[in-house]
Please model this.
Amino acid sequence: MGRKINFLVLLVLVALALIFGTGYHTVESAGEIDKADTAWMLISSALVLLMTPGLAFFYGGMVNKKNVISTMLQSFVALGVISVLWVIVGFSLAFGDSIYGIIGNPFTYFAFRNVGAAPNPAFSSGIPFLLFAVFQLKFAIITPALITGSFAERIRFRSYILFMIFFSLFVYAPLAHMTWHPDGLFRNWGVLDYAGGTVVHMSAGFAALAGSLYLGRRNSVIEAPANIPYVVLGTGLLWFGWFGFNAGSALGANADAVIAFANTNLASATAMITWIFFDRFRNKKMSALGACISAIVGLVAITPAAGYVTMGQSIFIGFAAAIVSNLAIMLNKKSDIDDTLDVFPSHGVGGIVGMLLTGIFAGKVGLVYGETTTMGYHLLAMVIVAVFTFGLSLLLYKLVDVMLPIRVTALQEERGLDASQHGEHA
Model:
């Protein structure tokens, strides 16, 4: 039954692409695009894409050696699944004509119709609309991949693919629309999310929390990372790609991109040194794993604020996120929640810290400037995102479980997912 469902989904996607797919025309936009902006956004799109293989190494190095391939593939396969889904309907749900500010009309850009080489002033005046759509695709790819660290070592691969499709359509797309579409609910409230603290990291974090709760604890919890150098490599690729993630969100080669670029690096660097010295303060070793996790936490926290804060404020954001997430991971380890790679304490909590500090520091509308409106809406949006993402994700896990058993058997878990799901060994 599971094989038939998987094949049927693939067949439908291919058929829709063949029936509705359209070609691209470049002549119409020859005199309209800004070449510098376009060049920077092409580079940024490539940088953000690199983050997903980076995440594969980051997660793959942290799991047990019998689950390395499975964990890495869970990230890597998103490049294929979400790319096709985004072209057919995902982009339209996220950026199509607004329906009550909550979600886009699925037919506005269905199968990338009307997504061509000419700029769309509503989204980006200097670059081809197709490039904007491709840049946004890379965000849509990495978000479900981030979730996988929470249920690593115990989920069926086919069931994960089905969940990823549902999550992208029903959780990610509405959040992207509400936050980044000109008519989106959060955007019209004045909620600031420069590059995805809410849309990407909070959503992934709360979906991860729901996943770790729904799938339950592993039968045997072995805290033995397979390959720390993989984690270091993955961290370097993520840090490098994050410059496209944040600075690319300026949608042009401009001053905002430079500010976001500088803040991104500084917050991550601050979080790293804060974390390892805080560990030493707590009488723990200054570990490579801690340095890598903290660098990512700093990147997560600065993401919503990257283009809105000063470099001094970015230092504080990195510092605060490192302390809070470090303590959150400590508490998580003492709880009954088996979030395998601490996705919620890192991305969920890091995203919350970043969102709140954006409301405090952002431009001239932050709390430190005497303005309360932005902070109030940030608090409201934070609660909505948390409840919406956690509740709907929990429902989607249940739905997938009804359609395809979501958890591997005890024997498959003992053998390892590399062997039981893929017939391969690292």
About this structure: The chain has 16 helices and two strands.
